[in-house]
Give the backbone structure.
Amino acid sequence: MPAASAEPKLLFCWVAEGLHVLVPKRRGTGFLSVPYGHHTDKGLDAIAALANCDLYGLDGALNFDCGWDICHGQKGTQDVFIERIRKPLEAHYKMQSQLIDVNTFWELHPHKSR
């Protein structure tokens, strides 16, 4: 579980074949149920282009659909991928980020009880 802090953080986690990012709500508590979808967001589109993969977010987290090579490839490829998108995402949402484990991800996921 991430340490409690006054400032919300983007929470990164590798799940299946993608990097998933829980995006905190600006008002209230918890995370956005639909962080990306239904409306174009030029900032997120630019980050997806930088990442060179599909980005969607209708199911409780931003999902960078990276594919097998990044998720299960050579050691270090995940770190390189995160570093490519971390600063642009932090700038887009105006908040810091943190890598979490998969159990914490599912504990915090906004759709966990659905």
About this structure: The chain has a mean pLDDT of 89. The first strand starts at residue 10 and ends at 15. The beta strands are 10-15, 18-22, 54-56, 62-65, 97-99. Residues 10-108 form one domain.
